Amino acid sequence: MKRLILSCGHGTRHRLSTYSQQKLIPVAKTLIELYGSKIKSEITNKYRVRNIRHCFADISKIKKLEYEPKASFEEGMKELVEWASKIEAKDRFDKAYKELEERRLVGK
Q1: Domains of the chain listed by start with CATH number
Q2: Considering the entire predicted model, what is its pTM?
């Protein structure tokens, strides 16, 4: 997803985004489709303790400077998948999850 960090003086920095609030399941389905995968998503209702569960960009201030997003959520996801297809991924989920459990950072 294309983002830009803009310095507007007075120590104010803005991380630009499309302000497209998305739910997790449609995001997962979009990624599965774009990757051409047959994987089934699984909802475990487990989460990291103290994790921010609802987060989206508020671009109201930067819109006052006439900024308008140029890419949709879907376009950004396509760009992400194109980029990721060029990278060699290593599955480290089990190791990472075990570390979260050991540190009691996974909710039950």
Answers
A1: 4-102 (3.90.25)
A2: 0.57
